Amino acid sequence: MLGITGQYIDATTARFYGLTQGYSIVKLNSNVSDAGLQKSDIITKIDGNNVSSETTVQNVIAKEKPGDTVELEVYRPTTGESFTATVTLTEYSPYELAYDKLFHISSFPNRAVFLLCSLYKQSKRGMP
User: What is the secondary structure of 75-108 as a DSSP string?
Assistant: First the structure.
């Protein structure tokens, strides 16, 4: 797991708001903040791959394992600076996975309720 939750900013949205295309960070874990990343930073490249779609970051991370490092090129809109950060991937706990899924589907209440019910059923069966 990279340790961030965010939103992809496509080229049209980036032009409209005067931003850069990439993956905007909304929430981050300590392993990412230790690398110097902050909320609202925009990841423009990951391991040399341009972040050109919603799945770019996921596709790169899926090929790696916990303990591996990835290099991020980052744009900070608040200062206009760009920099490189190296982040070590961590294990994804079931609770972090549930939080991220809820965060991404919060605009779809029926899906959120379904996920919560599924997690509740798993907890009753003794699953972590």
Answer: EETTTTEEEEEEEE-----HHHHHHHHHHHTTT-
